[in-house]
Diadenylate cyclase (Deinococcus phoenicis), 276 residues
Amino acid sequence: MLDVLLVAFLIYQGYLLVVGTRAVNVLRGIVVFAGVWMMSQLLGLTTLNYLLGRAGTVGLFALVVLFQPELRAALERVGRPRGREGSQGGAALQDLARAMERLAERKTGALIAIERRTPLGEYAATGVTLDAVVSAPFLEALFARNAPLHDGGVILQGSRVVAAGCLFPLQSSDGTYRRYGTRHRAAIGLSELTDAVVLVVSEERGSMRIALAGRLGPDLNGSELREQLRALVYDRADLTGILPAPVAPPPPEAGLEVRGEADGPAGSPPHERGSA
Ligand SMILES: Nc1ncnc2c1ncn2[C@@H]1O[C@H](COP(=O)(O)OP(=O)(O)OP(=O)(O)O)[C@@H](O)[C@H]1O
């Protein structure tokens, strides 16, 4: 009984580690691969079985190399003391929300990604490495107009700012979010490829929004932002119930109309209208 319970617990913990990360797709691939391998064994397809067996052995090593950052982060998480993280995280949340509110009041654009399970090291490497405690004045200073690092995104790991001026992957222009500017598309793009919670302050509208799992949420006020941050980042809740489903892509003519209307001077970048 103890053996079965321990194995079930380990499998569940393993599932929690990978759910919402890019490893989930790889896991699905492995399940399909294992299924085909077992079928080939059952049906006596010896050559296919031999080839898949060999590929599986090599694949195991390839997986360790491919997911080295995720494995390291998972082991670090297992060994991290819990109580300290909780109290520091709460203070960081308050400072982060306060900074977002002030940036939104002043209509200063901002883009902040909060790391969850998927390591954001490869995106942090595109900017300037920092190691600073999250504080409202520091975040405001980072995004202040003319500040050296105001362009690009900031990355937070727990209660620390680890990089600024980072380049995030842009959401592919597949229609749904085509009418948004690049700051919002970078937020959606990063949240599509990782499980990060990405916060955006719009320079044009002074609005605060959260992007998660490839979806952009509605405008938030300060208390809504705090509530969602607490649930998503510190309680590690899943987002599905919080963000609305993406809106249907606007027809091409409407999209052009919206851009022309919203953008003011010709040639300026497209901006969003209303909420997703
Ligand atoms: N790939 C990217 N990664 C990180 N930051 C980016 C990226 N692309 C653009 N940005 C940031 O977004 C800024 C441009 O925002 P833009 O006006 O195009 O977007 P927007 O979504 O309309 O936002 P806003 O409502 O604030 O104007 C850039 O100056 C830069 O700081």
User: Anything to note?
Assistant: The pocket of adenosine-5'-triphosphate is lined by residues 109, 111, 151-153, 167-168, 170, 180-184, 186, 202-205, 269, 271 (CB under 6 Å). The domain at 84-235 is CATH 3.40.1700.10 (YojJ-like (1). DSSP finds ten helices and seven strands in the chain.
